[in-house]
Amino acid sequence: MNQSMYWNVKTVKPLPNFRIYVELEDGRKGIFDLTPYLNRGIFRELRDVHYFNQVGILFGAVTWPNEQDIAPETLLAGLVPVESSADLAAINVDVAVGYAHAQTAAAHTLHR
After folding, report:
1. Which of 1, 45, 46, 95 has a C-alpha 20 to 30 A away from that of 33?
2. Environment class of residue 51 by beta-carbon count within 10 Å: exposed (0-12), middle (13-18) or buried (19+)?
3. Kindly report the CA angle at 2 between 24 and 77, in degrees rounded to 5?
């Protein structure tokens, strides 16, 4: 197998604003923005943040429970590289802030 095509995803984390953080088996790391896809066919379901956050990995690909997935070529073409530990720290803060916002929104919904 050509190493440049070795795209298996080993880690995926949902981020705020319909982005995902991805780590590939070959060591590449980056952020992929799904915003451009949210009005297309089956991807419309991803506009629900709680569903979007159910992102996972199946057979090395980024997927969601209702079979939405990202083609490896699309993922690689749109992946914005993340290199430094400072970049990773910023992502972790972004995840924590997004989680806090989601929790606050859920609490407001429950108290109505």
Report:
1. 1
2. middle
3. 50
SS3 of residue 81 by DSSP? strand
User: pTM value?
Assistant: 0.73
Residue ranges of the chain with per-residue pLDDT less than 70: 1-6, 84-112
Q: Measured in Å, how far apart are the chain's first and last C-alpha atoms?
A: 55
CA Rg value for the chain:
15
What is the rounded CA–CA span in Å between residue 95 and residue 31?
A: 12
Query: Among residues 21, 10, 36, which one has the least CA distance to residue 93?
Result: 21
DSSP summary character for residue 40: S
Nearest to 36, CA basis, from 72, 78, 83, 76: 78
CB 91 within 8 Å of CB 31: yes
